[in-house]
Design brief:
By secondary structure, the protein is of the alpha+beta class. About 30% of the residues lie in helices and about 25% in strands. It is built from 30 helices and 62 strands. The strands form 16 sheets. It has a 19-stranded antiparallel sheet. The protein is extended.
């Protein structure tokens, strides 16, 4: 037996902690076992994820864990979470989309969604793994970390319970309970409202929080007033005026966390322990109170309110609950079924006295038996809640007030202990550990025979789990279900039903059923009127609630405080005014749509003869009022309260001094209500007039114009306003509404029949008086987006009337926002509306804008300014307009139905066409970026073909376009074939001179015709095989020519065949003479490259022409200098504004740079050295700014240069053309610079050095003259090469390296061999005289060491390091500067050994400098020398720098011919 029990115990032990998972809806509902290494002791669930805590303190996550860096897939199997340090986890909690855990060291770790700061981590929207949350108490000195016991997670917030039983919160929302309105709160803060309270447990719902705390002891003050609360000092009694009777209630609700009881609690208290009722002022630490932080007062909290309900109103007695603070109240000892009555000793007036007083306050007050069943009581908001700022209405039109401070929800003093509390979304529950029952504020009853062990709260229901084996009987379950349905029915009725109630002599009320519950209402009213009626019903319910609040505050004011700040109609004036506005507008719309007439039949079916009670209630003088009029006046009756509020506030001003603050507040409040009452009265009159118009208008042709918000302004008679040049028998009627002008035409002189009508929205209507010979003095010109016409008034008075009415109506429409709210200040009525305005219009007439909708700026009936134009076929233009046409910068999208994609153009427009620079994305994948003219590609541009212009595009063309076709010079890179063409184009075909290079090293230059190689050309191979002759097709030789071999042999004759295959040759074979050297053979036989190529001056003419046009010149060099500078300023200013409006904002330094460039430099006459330096600095800034014309030019030239000589274009045969192209750039840019600065000398001009700038080193020394007179030689190289060459250095130097590749290999082989030798051996080999050999050298700044035969890389080390910097310089002047510094270092070291008077001779200098060059080991020295030689300024070739450069060049050639075989 013992063994059996032991085995069963072990089996139970093994099964404990097993995890089962199941899903609903389309998934399986069968629980599936989830295997984990250790048993699960706790689980927490979020919206679509969950966390598990095992016995060994490990945490697993499962579900939708999208915050991880992996893909957003469902984690079906639990995933182990890693914690820093491997701490053991004690508790876990899950919010909607985040999780939290507490480790054994008292630290909170959080992970998941952090968009609202709920994870307590800064600068992260997603926290992928558990991250510690810093919780530090700054009030202690020094600040110390807070030890955490428990944690709870909501949707957007997290709570933590510290070891001191204090609550800490972080996240977003008033449910945090923090005194702040700045969210999110990313650093944990203490909930100060719970300071001093002993918090036992915390729980979080979706948007509310719950805390279980111990009750505070009652106040012991014996002088406490019996009429006010000892905690919040608010009245314990409330008085509510209900028509002809008053409800006095002492169900006080204290927001400071004292106590709150309800009817059912009192019943349980009396039944459970009658002895508790005899205790007085007893409160200990075992008493516990629920404290909540609620975002909204949800429907489940109706039991907490002290207001009267329908069920309580139907009873003849009033039940009073036990007093929460002190149970010595005599009323608390009364039996619960004892009727509570008002005695003479009460300080409050009786019903009749209060009613008479209120009637005297309002001369025109009416008894209101028309009300909605209240959904909320008079529960006040918390201390930190402002009704003005926090009130909002949910989907059931129910007022809700967020609570920022903890509120006492339920006192559980009579229960010994409350263990678990739970929340979720908008429901809360608590469980008593003593009785095993839920301590719910609503008093949800549980089964008598079932002990509740646990509870759970979902988004809409609260569930409790029973620990016993017996279930509730079926009858109790049915009763609970019926009660729940009854409560839900009452809630829905209170929000939507409009009821008429009658009161008999005994004070009992009889209610007629709500109209909205009738099915016939929807069919009678129609969809539009039914929606309006539902809106009216919802607003009416809120008005009833506000009226009750006003009655309470007014009674308290008259009885006790006399403080105007407590008056609800002043304190919450914004809510009152907005609610009455919200009620008046749909009520007027309902009247316009004829809703009251349609409502008569269902009202009579619903009310029957009791509808006559409404006439008695309204006290109408007319005895035979129609039912529709009764309903109209009945629903308009609440709006009369506005006048009552104003009169009450006005009479109260007599109680205060004129100069007091209270007097001014009352006066301001009175004025607000009077203004609104006047506005509401006007709205009613407008609605009645409009309803009368539609009622008398029996024609059906204009019935489609009837809309709820449309109001009639005025209507013309048959001859009051006529159309100019109208027919003799035509009838023209103009009807002005508050949003449109309707022109109805017909042939029968009756308003009831019209053959057609035209609608003109007022937002796009312009009117102006016309007085000329043809029209006379009575004409009015009406302008619309699609037409203009003139109407003639019958008299000057009629003309002024219509002019004023239309202008006022247009101005009113323009003053309304998109939501219908007035955005222009009241009282600012203009004589006429603005000519320029923002509006939306849909074109209807034939033309390019048919069925297109425009939203943006208008000017006199035409789109003008920024706007968006959308066509019905999907085309969209967003940009600027001018006089109705696209003009300026815009974004245009056009659908391509074949490919189901969009063509898109983003750029400049002119007169409705693409004109200027822009980018066009084709649906086929091609992208064009360049100039447009008249909707065609015209000017310089780049076309990329392929998949969205990616690097794998099939082809790229950069060049000139003419009428949407390639024409002029351009580069075509065929990536698929691996060929690049650089030459002339005509009609999208290669025509004229051109060059073709391939990826296999072939080079061709010659003539092209009809897109083919035709005529004489030169073909070169990678191995230097060359053919010069006639071609007929691409790579097809056909005619006379000469073929030269790399060894000097050649063929001369007639060639036929394709290159790369068989060739037929008829001619002569030539072999070089035996007496000719190899060099002579190469020089005589090598063909000259570049003869058939396009000259550099003819390349990229369109780019320079575009730059000249931006400066305002039609032709290069022809224009006005002042106009050019003005154009530059305009371009920079407009571009800066455009960049400011774009999402990519300019930095402060960029803005300052643009502002400095907008200033026109003032240089007149000849340019001095100082002015030359200013010009140079200006050019540097201008070329660094792409918005400047010069900057755009430089950026474009760099782009086309790289497109030409990068990739397949990196062919050594193109070196000479690349150098000539750079030199051409310099000459043409220098022409632009001299046009902007006319005082600048020509190429080679001289600027003398001024005395003021003699000491300035701002100019480069490379441009100094060697003449006796100091100054500067002006050249395009010295001025522009430092700006241009660094941007082109990489492709250019690559071509130099390819051209000198064979020489560089020979040179580098010698360098490697020579550098293997020590210093003394290398000096000896190079022939350096021994007097120049250093005896001792200083290494790394240390003491000098003797040079030994084995010493290496020590001699002339400083000069070697200096020469190595030549590879880091870009322009020839800087490279020459490096060479000069190298010579100075060598000279300085030699003078140290031989004395300062030492002078070099060339025989001594050359071997020493040769040693320095060898030790410098410059990898591509030949390319460096060639670049300097080609681009060096002519003025420097014959000076000292020229001699130094010649020495370096000689050293390079000497190294190539050194015999290094001995090493």
């Amino acid at each position: 037996m013992e063994e059996q029990r032991s085995s069963e115990k072990e089996k139970t032990s093994r099964e404990r902690g097993l995890l089962y998972r199941w899903q609903g809806y389309s998934c399986t509902v069968n629980p599936e076992k989830v295997l984990l290494p250790r048993p699960v002791c706790h689980a927490a669930l979020g919206i679509s994820h969950g966390v598990l805590l095992t016995e060994d303190g490990l945490v697993y996550s499962f579900g939708d864990l999208y915050w991880r860096h992996s893909s957003r897939s469902q984690a079906l199997s639990p995933v182990l979470e890693g914690f820093v340090g491997g701490q053991r986890v004690l508790r876990v909690s899950a919010g909607s989309f985040h999780c939290a855990a507490i480790t054994d060291d008292g630290v909170v770790h959080a992970w998941g969604e952090n968009a609202n700061g709920q994870c307590g981590v800064s600068d992260l929207s997603l926290v992928p793994s558990p991250t510690p949350v810093s919780i530090v108490d700054d009030e202690t000195v020094p600040p110390e970390r807070v030890w955490i016991l428990d944690v709870a997670c909501g949707a957007q917030h997290t709570l933590a319970l510290s070891g001191k039983h204090e609550v800490w919160a972080w996240g977003t929302g008033c449910q945090l309970g923090l005194v702040t309105n700045v969210f999110p709160v990313q650093r944990a803060q203490k909930v100060e409202h719970l300071s001093g309270r002993y918090v036992l447990q915390i729980a979080c719902g979706g948007f509310h929080s719950l805390a279980l705390v111990r009750s505070l002891p009652p106040l012991k003050s014996s002088r406490q007033s019996s009429e006010t609360c000892g905690q919040c000092r608010q009245p314990l009694y409330t008085v509510i005026d209900k028509d002809d009777h008053v409800i006095i209630s002492n169900n006080h609700y204290c927001p400071l966390g004292v106590e709150l009881t309800d009817e059912k609690q009192g019943q349980r208290s009396n039944q459970g322990s009658p002895a508790l009722m005899a205790k007085t002022e007893l409160s200990g630490p075992d008493q516990q109170v629920f404290t909540g932080l609620f975002e909204d007062f949800c429907p489940g909290q109706k039991a907490l309110d002290g207001s009267c309900r329908d069920d309580a109103a139907k009873k003849e007695t009033f039940h009073q609950e036990p007093a929460p603070v002190s149970v010595t109240d005599s009323s608390a000892a009364l039996p619960k079924n004892l009727k509570r009555t008002k005695t003479k000793s009460s300080p409050y007036p009786d019903e009749q006295a209060l009613k008479d007083y209120l009637r005297r306050m309002s001369d025109q007050s009416l008894s209101e038996n028309f009300e909605a069943v209240p959904t909320e009581g008079s529960r006040p908001p918390s201390r930190q809640t402002s009704l003005k700022d926090r009130c909002r209405v949910d989907q059931h039109d129910k007022p809700m007030f967020p609570a920022l401070a903890p509120l006492t929800i339920r006192d559980v003093t009579n229960l010994s202990d409350v263990a678990p509390v739970a929340t979720q979304s908008s429901a809360s529950s608590a469980l008593s550990s003593q009785t095993g029952r839920d301590a719910l504020p609503l008093g949800v009853s549980a089964c008598d025979d079932s002990e509740v062990k646990d509870r759970a709260v979902s988004c809409q229901d609260s569930l409790t789990g029973g620990g016993g084996e017996e279930a509730c009987d079926e009858s109790q379950a049915k009763n609970q279900d019926s009660e729940r349905k009854c409560l839900e029915a009452n809630k829905s009725a209170s929000l939507s039903d409009v009821r008429i109630e009658d009161t008999d002599g005994l004070g009992r009320r009889r209610s007629l059923p709500g109209l909205l519950s009738k099915e016939s209402v929807s069919s009678c009213l129609g969809q539009t009127s039914m929606q309006l009626f539902q809106t009216v019903a919802g607003c009416f319910s809120r008005l009833c609630h506000l009226t009750g609040q006003h009655a309470i505050s007014l009674n308290s004011f008259l009885q006790n405080s006399r403080d105007v700040k407590t008056l609800t109609i002043l304190k919450k004036a914004d809510i009152f005014l907005d609610t009455y506005k919200e009620y008046s507008v749909p009520l007027g719309n309902f009247l316009v749509m004829g809703g009251f007439q349609a409502l008569v039949k269902p009202a009579q079916e619903c009310f029957g003869k009791k509808l006559e009670l409404a006439q008695k209630l309204l006290e109408l003088k007319e005895k035979d009022a129609s039912p529709s009029d009764l309903l109209l006046k009945l629903l308009y009756m609440p709006l009369q309260h506005l006048c009552d509020y104003g009169r009450v506030l006005l009479k109260m001003t007599a109680c205060f001094d004129v100069s007091s603050v209270e007097y001014r507040r009352l006066q301001d409040g009175c004025l607000q209500y009077e203004v609104l009452a006047h506005l509401v009265s006007k709205q009613r009159k407008d609605a009645e007039a409009t309803h009368s118009f539609w009622k008398n208008f029996s024609g059906k042709s204009l019935e489609s114009l009837r809309k709820p918000s449309r109001r009639l302004v005025c209507e013309s008679g048959n001859k009051d306003l006529t159309l100019q040049n109208s027919g003799r028998f035509s009838v023209n009627t103009f009807i002005l509404f508050n949003d449109t002008l309707v022109h109805a035409q017909g042939t029968i002189p009756s308003k009831k029949f019209f053959s057609s009508h035209f609608i003109y929205p007022l937002a796009t209507l312009w009117i102006e008086p016309v007085s000329d010979e043809n029209v006379g003095l009575l004409g009015l010109k009406l302008t619309t987006p699609e037409e203009s016409f003139i109407v003639l008034a019958s008299s000057p008075l009629e003309k002024g009337k219509w002019l004023r009415a239309i202008n006022q109506a247009v101005d009113h429409v323009l003053g309304l926002g998109q939501n219908g709210q007035v955005i222009s200040p009241s009282g600012s009525q203009r004589a006429e509306p603005p000519v320029s305005r923002t509006a939306t219009y849909t074109f209807t007439k034939e033309g390019r804008l048919k069925e297109a909708t425009y939203n943006g700026r208008w000017l006199s009936g035409k789109p003008h300014g920024k706007g968006t134009l959308k066509w019905a076929d999907g085309r969209v233009y967003c940009g600027t307009f001018k006089h109705g046409l696209e003009d300026g910068f815009g974004d245009y999208m056009m659908p391509n139905k074949t490919l189901n994609k969009f063509d898109r153009y983003k750029g400049h427009w002119k007169e409705g066409k693409m004109h200027g620079f822009g980018t066009y994305w084709y649906a086929t994948g091609e992208v064009y970026e360049g100039s447009f003219q008249d909707h065609q590609r015209h000017g310089h541009g780049m076309m990329s073909s392929g998949r969205l212009a990616s690097p794998s595009s099939s082809s790229v063309f950069v060049g000139h376009w003419l009428n949407d076709k390639k024409a002029g010079y351009g580069i075509y890179d065929d990536i698929t074939k691996g060929e690049k063409y650089m030459g002339m184009w005509l009609e999208d075909q290669r025509q004229g001179s051109g060059v073709v290079v391939t990826q296999f090293g072939l080079y061709y230059e010659g003539a092209f015709s009809n897109n083919r190689m035709t005529g004489v050309g030169l073909l070169l191979c990678e191995d230097d095989t060359a053919f010069e002759g006639e071609f007929s097709e691409d790579w097809l030789l056909n005619g006379k020519g000469v073929m030269r071999m790399p060894n000097g042999d050649s063929f001369e004759g007639i060639f036929v065949g394709e290159w790369g295959s068989e060739l037929k040759v008829v001619g002569t074979f030539l072999k070089p003479s035996l007496y000719e050297t190899e060099t002579e053979v190469k020089q005589s036989k090598t063909p000259q490259v570049g003869r058939y190529a396009v000259p550099a001056e003819q390349k990229w003419r369109a780019v320079f022409e575009e730059c000249w046009s931006r400066l305002g010149c039609e032709f290069p060099g022809q224009g006005e200098n002042d106009r050019a500078w003005e154009n530059i300023a305009v371009i920079l200013t407009s571009s800066r504004r455009k960049q400011t409006d774009s999402p990519q904002m300019l930095s402060r330094s960029q803005c300052k740079l643009l502002e400095s460039l907008e200033v026109i430099p003032q240089h007149r006459g000849s340019v001095s050295a100082q002015a030359y330096d200013i010009i140079r600095r200006y050019l540097i800034k201008a070329c660094d700014t792409p918005l400047h014309p010069l900057g755009w030019l430089l950026e474009t030239l760099v782009t086309v240069y790289r497109m030409t000589y990068v990739g397949v274009g990196s062919n050594r045969r193109l070196l000479q053309q690349a150098v000539e192209e750079i030199q051409s750039y310099l000459r043409r840019i220098f022409q632009l610079v001299r046009f902007l600065f006319p005082g600048l000398p020509e190429e080679g001009g001289f600027i003398p050095e001024s005395s003021e700038g003699a000491g300035s080193d701002s100019l480069s020394d490379s441009s100094q003259s060697d003449s006796t007179q100091q100054g500067w030689i002006v050249s395009s190289s010295s001025l522009l090469l430092p700006i241009l060459l660094p941007r082109l250095y990489h492709p250019l130097f690559t071509l130099y390296s390819l051209e000198r590749e064979r020489e560089e290999e020979l040179y580098w082989d010698c360098i490697v061999r020579l550098n293997r030798q020590p210093d003394l051996s290398l000096l000896t080999f190079l022939g350096v005289p021994q007097k120049f050999w250093p005896v001792s050298v200083s290494i790394l700044g240390k003491e000098k060491e003797q040079v030994l035969p084995s010493t290496k890389d020590a001699c002339f080390a400083t000069a070697v390091e200096t020469l190595q910097q030549i590879s880091t310089a870009f322009i020839p002047a800087d490279k020459l500067q490096v060479i000069q510094l190298t010579f100075e270092d060598v000279t300085q070291e030699v003078q140290t050994m031989l004395g300062q008077d030492f002078l070099w001779s060339m025989d001594d200098l050359f071997p020493v400098f040769l040693y320095v060059v060898v030790r410098a080991q410059i990898r591509n020295l030949g390319s460096e020398v060639s670049l300097i030689d080609d681009l060096m300024e002519p003025a420097l070739q014959h000076g000292e720098l020229g001699l130094m450069f010649t020495t370096l060049k000689a050293c390079y050639y000497q190294i190539q011919h050194e015999n290094t075989t001995c090493f």
